[in-house]
Amino acid sequence: MNENGKSPTPSWQPLAYAVILILGVYIGLQSDGGASNGMHMVGSRSALNGVLDRVEQTYVDPVVRQELEQVALDAVLDKLDPHSLFISAEELAAMAEPMEGNFEGIGVEFIIQRDTLIVVAAILGGPSEKAGLRAGDRILTVDSVAISGSNLTNQRVMELLKGPRNTTVVVGLDRADTIKHVLLRRDRIPIHSVVCAENLDNECGYVKVIRFAQNTAEEFELAMEKLAEQGLSEVIVDLRGNGGGYLNAVVPMVESFLEDEDLVVYTEGEHVPRRTYKARRNGRWKDWDIAVLVDESSASASEIFAGAIQDHDRGPVVGRRTFGKGLVQEEFSISNLGALRLTVARFYTPTGRAIQRPYGEGVDYSDDYFARYERGELFHQDSVATVDSLTYTTPAGRIVHGAGGITPDVFVALDTIRWSGYLSDLSWSGTLRDAAFAYVDANREVAERQLQGAGDGLKSEALLNFLIEYAQAEGIPPPVKWTSEERRELSNRMAAQVIRNGAGEQAYYAFLAQRDDAVERAVYWLKNKSRMAIVDGRLTLLPESQ
Questions:
Q1: H/E stretch holding 248
Q2: What is the reported pTM?
Q3: pLDDT confidence of 457, banded at 50, 70, 90?
Q4: Which fold has domain 102-190?
Q5: Are the C-beta atoms of 23 and 73 separated by less than 8 Å?
């Protein structure tokens, strides 16, 4: 280790590039069923093995063969596109959990605060909730093993608490200075994708979707049913920050708003023939008015959803231009080492737009957000990048753009007050989250009373001062000068976090939605749908009649 706590670069690592030219052959031969995929090439595997054998046997320093292969493999895939990659077996397992929609464990959300593991919430219906664990409990032991201390990490906690279904674990809790031992039987814990379904005003509903996983379509259907039971017929689907997921999750969600045989999306690649995905029947919600919220972090399946709603003229897309990830990856198992996630096709919206933004030589793909920021695209609609040759027309005559990502009909600028330097520091450092938990933990009875009435009781100067003082103690002083708008936003964010800790995700997102400019714009457009018209190829609201 060097003085910065990092391991020095292994001297053998540059040798990895010597195997780059033949590593593709190695992938084909190691892949399960590689011959059937046209990847098998006779006689080449020995060349790769010969190089690696020679390095292992004669190189001046010790080498780790698997690490050598990994470095070279990454270099090969880096030459293809930004989304083709090799995933180790360990990484594959970790990535699978949120997409499968569940994991096995005791069902708690936790934070590590001052070297102590603290329960933030017991997941509804999980073993911990059933056993009576609650926010604020300190877990000091797991099966008699003390876990407090400076070496406590998230990974260590997960190793101790997660485990196969029906196995047991005994946790020692410090609750109000009393040690209590609780036997927990691990179970399957759901990971939800639809985190909020809220009646905004008895006319319009709001649904927040944070990923497209195995259970997302089913969860979305239940959320829509909940809104329908309340007599609603308008919905805002919030896909901001949703990086995508499974195609088979988003397709049924889109088709529920379309007519029978309407095209949802199609895929096509050099070696993959065109495949179309159409609505298989009239959608259950085809007569609902819909608006879709997106931003620069909405990607992949989120863009399929927004693009289809826009291309079929079903409603306005509100927000900022989406990420532009429209490449289809197919997963190939690589022996027992992991998987190759290889791009095989592109996604196209119903009008024929390619969702994928440009990449390759001369394009700084990873810094696209900062490029948008610098040219003003996040703040001004007329700065949004479009290409005249990549415009398409919807059946109703709306002009849509295909320069990468989905360009919204209704632009909502990035709120710089919401992401001021001070608030950003509090958010990214985790101080805002920790301060909210500390407030609930220290003022439980007061917080429970304040949570009544959708969080209105949390609008207090005392709550804001608690955050400021907590942050100060953590080394983040408040700005010398700040506006009343910044203080109000910070107060709202602190209140939202307190609600999250005390009342859960549904209440948290519902609270934020009631104070969100983009939601407000979407509600306004839906309320004025009779004035929606396409003028010069753009969806607009006609002036109110005098």
A1: helix 247-255
A2: 0.82
A3: low
A4: Pdz3 Domain (2.30.42)
A5: yes
